[in-house]
Amino acid sequence: MGLFASVVVGFTFLINLLLGFTAYNNNPKSWTNRLLAILTVILASWTIFNFFALLPGNEATRLFWVRIVMLVTSPMGAVTYLLASIFPKDKFSVSNKKLSVIYAIVLVTAVMSMSPWMFTSLKNLPNENFSLTPGPAIALFAVSHLGLTTLAFIVLIKKFRQSKGRLRFQFLLFLLGNIFTFTLITVSNFVAVVFLGTIQYTFIGPTFTLFLAGFITYAIVKHRFLDIRLFVVRSVTYALLIIVLAFIYAYGFYVIGQLLLPVHSEISEFLITTFLALVMAFSFQPLRRFIQRITNNVFYQEHYDAAQLLGKMGRIMATNILIEPLTAEIIKQLLNNLKISRGAFLLLKNGNLNSKYTDGFSGDILSEKDLQILVTHVSQDKAAADGIVVFEELAEGKIKEVLRKADISVVVPLSSKKELIGLLVLGEKSSGNVYNSEDINFLEILAPELSVAIQNSESYEEIRKFNITLQQEIEKATQNLKAVNQKLKEMDQLKDEFISITSHELRTPMTAIKSYVWMVLNRHADTLTPKTHEYLDRVYKSSDRLIRLVNDMLNVSRIESGRVILTPLKFKLLDLAEDIKREVQARLAEKKQTVTVSAGDPEIMVLADREKVQQVFENLVGNSMKYSPDGSPISIEISADKGFAKVTVSDKGKGIGKDDLSKLFKKFSRVENSQIAPPEGGTGLGLYITKQFVELSGGKIWVESEMGKGSKFIFSLPLA
Ligand code: ADP
């Protein structure tokens, strides 16, 4: 038993106690932490008593220490079993029946271990060795210790097989630590002693507890086993802070006291104390931050410039309006800079999951039920503080269970106008370290800005989707309209065809009627009584009107369907005007009207379809006759100007009102206030057809008229 053994024992003892203390301090209410603390105390006591037993001494003393070793280790199996059953929960959930049995076993073993039935005697051997004579109760110890330890293994293996993710790994570490420690200890300190009768290896025993301590520590540091790392880091920060402050105070008091020595009095002491108290009050916060930064730097190498990163995030939010690139880029930056393993945005609508953007998380991340638990928790928590949920800082419970299952380390609630719009969930740090206060501060500052950016993106997305739907609706409506329009066109064509056919069919019999009546009236007038003559005259005029109406309809139908055929020829306008004058002579005489034809140049020739131009003349002169009182003069003037012939048909009728001028050339436009109602009525098609014929011939038509001052209809035609 040299210095080496003492150091090993001391070291093992301290590590075990430190671990137990830290675990207990982290969460004194948690039975997992409590049992771990108890176990480490047992291990530490066992380490130290084992050391005492091995020290040189008389046989009685050594036997006493051996029995003490047996006493303190008697509950070891039971505690291991209970820890395995409860881990990682806080509540003590072992049935009373089971517990009573365990208590009984432990109690009997403990009592027995102090009796001669466990170890009857001890015999000192050379080289500070000794040999032990076991009694029958050793079997009880073996059964209770090995039995309960084996049960603990079974429980751990079962839990390990049923768990997933980080928890599974933690069980594995726990299991491995246990297996190593207890197997090795059982071999060195039990099997060797009892079956081989040697204590040669007993001193190594305590070292093996370091396996358990080592594995558990690894699990804590790397996999947040029992989640006490943050506590350790914060403890160090505050310990340092207290040391520095105490130093400042003591040193300050000393130095200032020295300076003021000559005037040392109670007053000066009071002044110094007040001054130092003020210094402390003002320096506490900056100092805390400073020390925190130093400890963070020591404990967390992965440092980043928070201000710079915030700037970068701001730019990303300002330049990305679409939700997908925005969330992807934000997560990417967070993962890269804060060295986080995975992250995801869970965006909510009315408290339910609406969309999800993830990097590194697989599957659903959270079940619907778990998400609801988290949302409820965050919504309640929000009023209290910043609302960020940190796994390490949570007490064992439903929320912690949910986060553990989903492998989430931090939850940042995103809310706008007090409404929770989503959650930013982050996995553990890639390095295995915990989130430090700088990270949490950073996320706290980022959260509100991020919430606004995400909500803007969501609104934009909504508008975009609405626009797309709108466009689709418009396209559909346009398609419908096109179809309806096509149908209308077809119907219009059908109508044109109908008019064209019926007009055509009507014209032939009407012309026959008119011709026969004309013959009776002109060739056999002498055989007619005056009454019959009058009646036949009316038949003649009516049939003439009907023919003109049918002709108008036919013309309109041809114009509208683009079937007007023009055969341009050169002819003298004056000749045509004279022809017209002759044609209407009989009707002129009836109304005692006169038509005068004049031409600036009698040779004015145009290139046009003579028949159509004749119809133009007939319409205009006919209208002048119709809408002028009996006996009034009508004139036709022909002139030429700038490549066009111009024909003006004027009358001295009552004229046309200003409001009606624009309507004249439209289809079926009958001007209501025609001062002189034409005896034979009209269709309102004449001027429309006239205008179309003039324009088809390359000319123009317009009217100049004033109420009471007659009308002038002027049209032009290209000169030949
Ligand atoms: P309608 O068959 O009725 O004569 P028009 O198209 O030839 O049809 O003429 C349209 C309307 O223009 C007429 O109803 C009439 O009121 C008016 N109008 C045409 N020519 C004259 C004119 N020379 N003087 C007065 N009113 C006229």
From TrEMBL:
Pfam families: HATPase_c (PF02518), HisKA (PF00512), HisKA_7TM (PF16927). One of its GO terms (molecular function) is ATP binding. It is a multi-pass membrane protein. Residues 460-494 form a coiled coil. It comes from the Bacteria. Residues 501-720 form the Histidine kinase domain. The keyword Heme does not apply. PROSITE patterns: HIS_KIN. One of its GO terms (cellular component) is membrane raft. Keywords: ATP-binding, Cell membrane, Coiled coil, Kinase, Membrane, Nucleotide-binding, Phosphoprotein, Transferase, Transmembrane, Transmembrane helix, Two-component regulatory system. It catalyses: ATP + protein L-histidine = ADP + protein N-phospho-L-histidine. Its main location: membrane. SUPFAM superfamilies: ATPase domain of HSP90 chaperone/DNA topoisomerase II/histidine kinase, GAF domain-like, Homodimeric domain of signal transducing histidine kinase. Its EC number is 2.7.13.3. InterPro entries: GAF-like_dom_sf, HATPase_C_sf, HATPase_dom, His_kinase_dom, HisK_dim/P_dom, HisK_dim/P_sf, HisKA_7TM, Sensor_HK_Regulatory. It is found in: Cell membrane; Membrane raft. The chain crosses the membrane at residues 6-24, 36-57, 63-87, 99-118, 138-157, 169-195, 201-221, 233-255, 267-284. PANTHER family: HISTIDINE KINASE, TWO-COMPONENT HISTIDINE KINASE. This is histidine kinase.
